[in-house]
Design a protein that fits this description.
alpha/beta; single chain
C-alpha cells in the first residue's frame, strides 16, 4: 500500500467524520476519522433520525446483526428527536464498562470506518487520544472489524497500542494499563478486551492496521520505535502551532504576556534523529499552506498532515454557521487562536478560537452550569480505602473537591466533552432549555482560513485543499513513496 503525501488530520469530535475522510481517500490521500467519543456520535446521529440512511446501511454490514439491531433499537428515532428535546445520554466510560456501552463503542467505530472506506479503493485511518484510555480497546477492535488501514494516536505515549493491534488481528485478548492518580507503588490497573468473548466464540482474523505515533519530539519517536509493544510504522511529527491538544513545553511552564505557554527551541523536534530511525514521517502544524508540502519533502519527510484547512471545508463536520463566522472574522483579520493552558481537563495546552457565541467568551463560560455527564476526560483516582473513583477538573467544583481534587485545578477548565459535540451540531439541551455552547479549535493557521476562499465564494472543498497543497510540486516528487512494512498485511 503506497504511502500518502497528505494525511488529513483526525480532529475533534466528528469534525473529521466519515464524509471528509472518504472524500480525501477518494482523492488519493489518507482520510482520517476522529475516534473520539464515537459512541456518543453514533447515538446522537441516530437520535437525529439518520436522515440520509447511511448509518443504518452501515449497521446492516456489521458482522454480528443482533448487536447492530440492539444499537438501532436503543438509539434510533424515526424522523429525529424534537428540536428542544435533550439527547438520551450514553453511559460514561469506566474500568468495568456496561456491556451495552462496549457494544455501542465497537459498533460506532465500525460504522465510522466502514462509511469512510465505502465505495473506493483508497485508504482510511482513525485517530485516537492516548489520554482517553477507557474506551480505547473496544474502539480499536471496532475499527479493525471495518478494515481500517491506519491507526494514529497522540496526546501521550501509546507504547501498548501496536501490541494490542497484533493481538486483535489474531483474535486474541489484549490489556491496556490505565493511569490512576495516587496509585501506590506496585499497584496496576488494566482494561481488558477479549475478541473471542465479544464475538461469542467466533472471533475472525483481521488485518493489522499500520500504526503512526503522533509525536512532538525525537525522544518520544525513539521511545516508541524502540520500546513499543509491536511494530511502529511511522510518525506524525506535530509542532505547537497545530490545533487541538498540544504537547506541553519542555521544562518548567512559562507563559507569555498573553497567558499562552511559551515554546522555544527545545520544543522543535530534531528531524535528523527522527530520520535516523528509518521510518516514514509526516510533518504537522501550519503545513496547510501553499509550498509547505515541498518544504516538508525537502526536509526528508514523506509528506504532511493537515487539519485546520480540512476541518473548515464543506465536508468537514464543523457547524456551517460556525464556519461562516470563522470566514467572516478571518476576512476582517479579527480571528484569534489562543493556546489555553487551562481549558482542557487533560492538563495539555488546548487551542481555542476566540469566537462570539462560543465557550471562549468568559461571561458565557462563567454562566454555564458545570455538568459532567459524558465523562470521556474523567481521571481515575485511588481512594483512601484502595477503591477507585472518577473525577474531572471540569465537573461541578463541590463534587471535585469531595473526591480529593484541588480547587486550583478547576480554574479555567472547560467541559470539552460537551462543547466539542456542540461544535458539530450535537449539543445537549439542558433542563433550562439552554443549548451546550461549542468550543472551536484549530491551528494557528485558522486566523487565515479565508485564504482558501475566492473573493466571491462562501465555502471551499476538500478537493480545493488537496489541490492547493499539491500545487507546484514536481511530478517526480508526487510519485508515491515506498510501501509500508509487510506487518500491515498480517492477519
Amino acid at each position: 500500500m503506497p504511502l500518502p503525501r497528505i494525511i488529513q488530520g483526525g480532529m475533534g469530535v466528528a469534525v473529521s467524520g466519515w464524509r471528509l475522510a472518504r472524500t480525501v481517500a477518494e482523492l488519493g490521500q489518507l482520510g482520517v476519522v476522529s475516534g473520539t467519543a464515537l459512541a456518543v456520535v453514533l447515538a446522537r446521529r441516530l437520535q437525529l433520525g439518520d436522515p440520509g440512511g447511511e448509518l443504518r446501511r452501515a449497521l446492516e454490514h456489521f458482522p454480528f446483526p443482533q448487536m447492530a439491531e440492539r444499537v438501532l433499537e436503543e438509539n434510533f428515532i424515526p424522523g429525529g428527536k424534537g428540536e428542544g428535546t435533550p439527547f438520551r445520554l450514553t453511559a460514561m466510560p469506566t474500568l468495568q464498562p456496561r456491556p451495552a456501552l462496549v457494544e455501542l463503542t465497537v459498533v460506532a467505530n465500525f460504522v465510522e470506518v466502514f462509511l469512510a472506506k465505502e465505495g473506493h479503493s483508497g485508504v482510511a485511518g482513525i485517530n485516537y487520544l492516548e489520554k482517553i484510555q477507557l474506551p480505547t480497546l473496544p474502539s480499536i477492535y471496532g475499527a479493525m472489524l471495518a478494515g481500517v488501514d491506519y491507526v494514529l494516536m497522540g496526546a501521550g505515549i501509546p507504547r501498548a497500542i501496536p501490541g494490542v493491534m497484533d493481538a486483535f488481528a489474531k483474535g486474541q485478548p489484549a490489556e491496556l494499563r490505565i493511569d490512576v492518580e495516587g496509585a501506590l507503588a506496585g499497584e496496576e490497573h488494566f482494561s481488558r478486551f477479549d475478541p473471542l468473548e465479544f464475538c461469542q466464540g467466533k472471533a475472525p482474523e483481521l488485518k493489522r492496521p499500520a500504526f503512526l505515533g503522533i509525536v512532538a519530539s525525537a525522544t518520544l519517536a525513539m521511545t516508541l520505535a524502540k520500546k513499543a509493544s509491536g511494530q511502529v510504522n511511522g510518525f506524525v511529527v506535530e509542532g505547537p502551532t497545530a490545533g487541538g491538544h498540544n504537547a506541553p513545553p519542555r521544562g518548567p511552564l512559562q507563559l507569555t504576556a498573553d497567558g499562552e505557554p511559551l515554546y522555544g527551541e527545545r520544543d522543535s523536534a530534531d528531524l535528523e534523529k527522527i530520520k535516523a530511525l528509518g521510518l516514514p514521517f509526516w510533518l504537522a502544524g501550519s503545513y496547510g499552506r501553499p509550498g509547505k508540502l515541498k518544504e516538508a519533502l525537502d526536509l526528508g519527510a514523506t509528506g504532511v498532515q493537515v487539519g485546520t484547512a480540512f476541518a473548515f471545508c464543506e465536508e468537514g463536520g464543523v457547524d456551517p454557521e460556525l464556519k461562516r463566522l470563522a470566514f467572516q472574522l478571518s476576512r476582517e483579520k479579527k480571528l484569534r487562536v489562543f493556546t489555553d493552558p487551562k481549558a482542557s481537563p487533560t492538563g495539555f495546552p488546548f487551542k481555542v478560537a476566540s469566537m462570539p457565541g462560543t465557550i471562549s467568551e468568559q461571561d458565557l463560560y462563567e454562566h454555564r452550569d458545570r455538568v459532567c455527564d459524558l465523562g470521556y476526560l474523567r481521571r481515575l483516582y485511588r481512594r483512601a480505602d484502595g477503591s477507585l473513583g472518577y473525577r474531572c477538573p471540569s465537573e461541578p467544583i463541590d463534587a471535585f473537591l469531595k473526591k480529593g481534587g484541588k480547587e486550583e485545578d478547576t480554574i479555567g477548565r472547560k467541559c470539552i466533552c460537551n462543547s466539542l459535540p456542540a461544535t458539530v451540531g450535537f449539543g445537549q439541551v439542558r433542563d433550562n432549555g439552554h443549548l451546550e455552547l461549542p468550543i472551536v479549535t484549530g491551528g494557528d493557521d485558522l486566523a487565515n482560513i479565508s485564504d482558501y476562499l475566492t473573493p466571491e465564494a462562501e465555502s471551499y472543498t476538500a478537493a480545493d485543499v488537496v489541490r492547493v497543497l499539491l500545487a507546484g510540486i514536481p511530478e517526480n516528487d508526487l510519485s508515491q513513496p515506498a510501501e509500508l512494512e509487510p506487518v500491515l498485511h498480517q492477519g
